[in-house]
Amino acid sequence: MLFTSNLYLIYLPVVLLLYYRLEPRGRRMMLLAASWLFYMLYNPWFMWIILATTSVDWIAGKGISSTENPKARRLWIVASVVSNMGLLGYFKYSTFTLENLNLLGNFISPRVASLVWRGALPLGISFHTFQGISYVVDVYRKHMKPVDSFFEFALFVSFFPQLVAGPIVRAPEFIPQVKFTSSADSVAFRRGIARIIFGMFKKVYVADAIAPWVSDAYADPNRFSGAGLLLATVAFTTQIYCDFSGYSDIAIGSAALFGIKLPENFDAPYLSRSITEFWRRWHMTLSRWLRDYLYIPLGGNRRGKIRTYINLMITMLLGGLWHGSGWNWLVWGGIQGAVMSVERLTGLDKVPQSRTGQFARWLSTLAVVLVSWIFFRARSYSHAMLVLTRILSWSPGVIHTENRSFIFAVGGLTLILVAEWFNLKQRFLAWSETRKTAMRWLVYACMAIFAVTFSRAPNQEFIYFAF
Amino acid sequence: MPSRATKRILLDLGVLVALAATLELALRVLAPEYGHKIFDNKFTGSYPVDVNSDGYRGPAQSKEKPPGQLRILALGDSETFGTGVPSGQTWPAQLDRKMKERHPGSVVINGGFEGVGIRDLNVAWNEVWRDYSPDIVVVGLTANMVSLELARPEPLSFANVVASHGDPPNRLSRLKLLIGREFHSIYTVGFISIFAQRALYWSGLLDHRLTPKYLYGEVLAYGWSQGDIPPDLAGKAWDALGEDLSKFSDQIRKTGARLVVVWMAPRFDLSNSWRDNEKNIPRERFTLDPVVEASAIVHRADAKFIDSLPYLKQAREKSVAVGEYRALYVHFDAAHYDNDGNSVVAQAIADSL
Description:
Chain A is mostly helical. In chain A, 71% of the residues lie in helices and 0% in strands. Chain A folds into two domains: 21-182, no CATH class; 187-466, no CATH class. Chain B has helices at 4-30, 78-81, 91-102, 118-127, 143-151, 158-163, 171-184, 187-203, 233-254, 290-300, 309-321, 339-352, and strands spanning 43-44, 47-48, 70-76, 106-112, 136-141, 258-263, 304-307.
């Protein structure tokens, strides 16, 4: 089920209505059932993956806490990581691995080749496997006690507002909230609804309006001029942000209606003055996960400068691969890691004092982000290089100027920057907290506008559903 | 006892229902055009689809042609059928009246059906129309027919086309149709759906992109440029149309009849104003002139070609000059002609016959 569908406009109120009629224990079970149904309405066939990883991680958590024997504890954590990463690897990376092994020499037998997964990626697999791993590691590190109730743990893995594309939640911040001894008060409720509205507007009326235009340019870059491709890339910069942060807003807003606080995922990333800062503001829950469960275990910055840069590169390369299996993802991650290393080496990760210096850093950071989005959006590495070459050589070709393309590209990005500079989202959320009547009528109006839009315009999937 | 929140929501709903009722009444009085939104198997633009016993629109004609009768057969898709207008206002019906002024013994048969292409006309000719022995066959060629050459390779049979105006097969379908009809007879629904569509086109959420797997739509005929559509696809569609038209022309010539093809210009061709291009179709993406393409294939098929666009433009300019703006197209429709538009097309054909 898509957040931006009429079904969700009905599903969420119905689940809320049932939820607030039940006692805490019943609420938990009802929410778990609603979460599993939410997933199955999208694709019932992959439900077994969620059930399997949930069971393995819950048992592993129990196993780790039941013994002080280091070998046994390590065995449990290995079992959990291998099962999660094994599933992720099989569904997400087996085709990519096979293709590249074949390039090295045709030594993979057709029988083995026929075993690789070539179908659609199970929805949300990159997110819920990471959550499962983080739980087992936290129990192993004794940062938390194992969860006694299987259903409580299953709700942590499957909670429908964040099941498909995050934010990636950690068990210590989620589990205490599912006791449901308290619920959202009217202020938090209004704030949650305002956040959903804000997210839906960003996703539907900004990201989705831009999407076809960007797809057009990236479908066949050879036909497009350098200027057209540059405009399309600027437009994608707007699209990806409004799509993913819109999703996160809807997820966080929906969770808030049940009295559950999810971590923030974005904090004005396009205002960053370095790539290091950008990753503190973009997909913050993934950055946090990579830092705590990959970068720090690798040694972080505790083993000398050279090792720090290597660790940074490994973390960002794997972060790139987390998004997708392809050389373009590896390059995308590599760009982030390399620039972060250079920033660390030269001190460019520190915010300069002068306004001019800040402006120059902001502009150069945005340029790096823009170039890296080419690798993010392109189908493959060679495709990305084609786009980049055509932009840099200012190649002649088509440039579709209709549908306010320039407004889409430059206007959209400007709109984001202005909105973030003036913190319009927080102002709107603060406004919603105190405006009872206005919010009520705003909700009715938005419900009608969204219902008409969802029933007539083609529903675009969220970009991060593919990861 | 209902809780405070429930009471408040019920009160709000009451206010909303009252507002909707007021809007409905106002629209019925001030803007009756918003009520013309029933399009189903029995109504078109809320006018009855009065098909005759032989299945086509307008009065039924006997297959045997009376001696001395000039019989003209009008073939084409919804623009010939007359979507959105009563049967007396279609261009074949108006051509019939105009021709009778010159040739009292003439008759025009409306053989148009929604969603058909030239390939379907070939089949229909062999199945049905050849037996009517027309002297002249006039085909209303539309941009959609060009797309159909690629989108629907298998032709439709005439019986299946006629069946689309039959009764639904079961009770559930009949009930659905009835509910749909009642729903669309509410003026507010028409008003909201029209403005919602405009807003979605304006915002870019609806556009004219072709789906590579389903190439339906009117823009392919104009050589629509789109990243994931091969640039030569429009040319291929026109080539296929040319072949089918030549086959059709050969069949018609064998019976001694003449073929005339009229290019039925869509509304966005009339001007660049927002009123004529509500769907925001970007002309920058066009790489072909459909009139040039149509004219070439029609001449190759040894038939006569008429371009309706200059006639429509002239009629529009005249109406503006005298201060009586005439849309020439059905309200909120980018393709189908209204009474005035059909009259212009009928006159253009009558003048060249």
